[in-house]
Amino acid sequence: MGNSSSLMLRDEEIEQISGETEFNRNQIVRLYSRFLSLDKKGQGFLEREDLMNVPELAVNPLGDRIVDAFFTLAGKDDKHLNFRQFVQVLAYFQPIDKTKRNENNDRSKKLKFAFMMYDLNRNGYITREEFKVILNSMVGANITADQLDKIADRTIEEADADQDGKISFEEFCKAMEKTDIEDKMSIRFLN
Amino acid sequence: RMVPSPLAEHAILLASTFLFPPVAFVVVIVILLATLGKSLGLRERYVATLIYIFEWGAGQIKTTAKLKRKESLMPLDVPIIDSDEEEEEEEEEVDEDENERRTARSDGYESSSGLSRRRRNSANSVSSRASSVCSLRRRHGSGNNIIMRDTQLILDDEDDLPIETMHVNSRGWAVIGDSVDFIKNGIEAIIEDEVTSRFEAEQLMTWNMLTRTSTRFFQFVNWKLTVLYMAGFVFRYAFLLPMRITLFVIGLVFMLVSTAVVGIFPDGALKKTLNHKAMLTCHRILSRSISAVVYFHDEQYKASNCGIAVANHTSPMDVMVLSTDNVYALIGQSHGGLLGLMQRALSRASSHIWFERSEAKDRLAVSNKLKDHVSDPEKLPILIFPEGTCINNTSVMMFKKGSFEIGSTIYPIAMKYDSRFGDPFWNSSEQSWGEYILRMMTSWAIICHVWYLPPMTKLENEDAVDFANRVKKVIAARGGLVDLEWDGMLKRCKVPPKMVAKQQEKYANRLSRYTSTCEHLTRTPGSAPTLNDEAEDDEGIAASPTISGYNSLEELPEDVAITDEEDNVPPVPRSRSRPVSRVVEAPN
């Protein structure tokens, strides 16, 4: 049976979330429905395992990194995700409305998510080793360690403006300047 | 859990007592009709009335929601249920139905002559049924999309990915760029994916007066609605439920007894005919116990003998539903208890395949048993559900190839349930058998459309998996279901690591492909690759910096060459030197 949980979302909560994230009511209700269906145990919050239960995410080479970034961005308690936090993180992926003033803010939020994926130990820098780990997840055993090293080295080098051997968030943003982040990291939410 | 107070209990018992004579009467009539294979067409009218009520309810919902919206200036979200005038009418209608039902109760079967049944019905119900079939097939349960998906992880071996002509920087930043695509795919999957939704009951567009489907809709709106709901509740639990339980028990007893009797006869044509009649009758009684209304289409393709019938699987009732029209041999694991009793009973009257749990692992043994059965022309066609597990009837998942390897004729059957009156989907990890049966028996009705499809055989150049996919496609198309590649077993287990490895491999291929196009760009047409693989990779990496660095994307080749010279201070010393001249001849 579908949403067997009887937790209903109260109007005030919907209003609040709508104000914070710019999703409209419809979208929030549907996201809540999704939240409930991911929360199979009916605990009222999501754990990492709940997200990894989605087969399409589990098959994604970066699946667990994505989940990790999700939880890290959500808040202090990085083991549990309540609905509000869930929507807040998803809000990062809203399309950027170019007419609004805080366009740069949105772009930087999206980049922040990507940065989180790479920065494994969350110290604010991407090191060569961290990059190698990510690259390794994406290609698996299909390239040699040597090639991996080379690619990692080359990458860090190119973006490392201050030559400290690692990439900070600013350097990351600069390197991604030419990439169309707005499009790549926006999801089309239906009304 | 329902724990009735003493007063409520008393009331229910009283109601049941007063209802007993009509219930008993109805039961007798039903059995008579089932045995004779006749019908009175009343169940159809019941269904039609319910449809009318629900649709009217939906209309009311919309108007009331609009009113509410105007009042509170809130945007409309899910349909709110509220209906004032409508309820009184509904209550009247419900009374009428009860009267109808007290006189006689049966389903819409005619005797087994003629291709399409229920020709006797009025034009109204035929046309409404036809339109409801069409709309039924369009409903994939996917009407509640939250996002429009842009990315998709491809599961099978499609290698025709479009190669981007954008200039890649170094391989490294290309990877980061691609990882963003993976991120997007991941987030989209979190919001909405094809699989998770298939293991939940289909979401309804309007409420059908059952609590179990009401969580999507605001619950308490109006006391009048609550009254209506209570009336429906009492009707279902106090009238329908006892009748259905009685019928169910009678049906089971009938099955045991009739198979025992048929089992006396020696194998032969007589036994076969008797078995046929007995099975049909007994399943018809059982199907009335859940008020199953089944519509069969294209009966000329019905499986007659030898061969394997395959169908998509939604609920344990599938076997029963299909057996009301045709007799099949069954295959499955042998159980103990009541189910084991039934299995032994069935085996007395005709041959079925039951295998032990240990044998189930031995695919070859099972396959051999299947082959033996199928090659015997005296035996009945076997009914198999290749998905291996119950899916919620909005999609068809991967078919296991076992039954398609045998080489016999396959008779595909598509089944689509109309879940507005009761959802037959069973998620065994969420509901126990008992709960499920209770739900079935307190639903309004179970409506199913069954399409028989032309028989198919495996082509010579086709392997079992392709054949299975071909059959699956046909079934999905006919039933209006979404055809998915995912394995139904994902309901219970995690994704196996080899699927992840496959994605990695695909990505690595993609990566090497478009970075090697960079190599092509920097290599002159005449130069033969004289270096071995490892060197090529070095070359690749060495070559790609020619257009590396974000700032050099728009720059001219000469600049590229120059910056490359400067740039060429690799952290790892290269053993081969790259001739400068080659770089200068770089592309355009």
TrEMBL record, chain A:
The keyword rRNA-binding does not apply. Gene3D superfamilies: EF-hand. It holds the Pfam family EF-hand_7. Keywords: Calcium, Cell membrane, Cytoplasm, Lipoprotein, Membrane, Metal-binding, Myristate, Nucleus, Phosphoprotein, Protein transport, Repeat, Transport. Transmembrane segments: none annotated. The keyword Electron transport does not apply. One of its GO terms (molecular function) is calcium ion binding. GO terms for biological process: protein transport. InterPro entries: Calcineurin_B_homologous, EF-hand-dom_pair, EF_Hand_1_Ca_BS, EF_hand_dom. It comes from the Eukaryota. GO terms for cellular component: cytoplasm; nucleus; plasma membrane. Residues 106-141, 147-182 form the EF-hand domain. It is found in: Cell membrane; Cytoplasm; Nucleus. Belongs to the calcineurin regulatory subunit family. CHP subfamily. PANTHER family: EG:114D9.1 PROTEIN-RELATED. This is EF-hand domain-containing protein. It comes from Pristionchus fissidentatus. The lineage of its organism: Eukaryota, Metazoa, Ecdysozoa, Nematoda, Chromadorea.
Automatic annotation (TrEMBL), chain B:
Residues 578-588 have a biased composition (Low complexity). Keywords: Acyltransferase, Lipid biosynthesis, Lipid metabolism, Membrane, Phospholipid biosynthesis, Phospholipid metabolism, Transferase, Transmembrane, Transmembrane helix. This is Phospholipid/glycerol acyltransferase domain-containing protein. Residues 307-418 form the Phospholipid/glycerol acyltransferase domain. It holds the Pfam family Acyltransferase. It comes from Pristionchus fissidentatus. Residues 82-98, 555-568 have a biased composition (Acidic residues). Residues 521-530 have a biased composition (Polar residues).
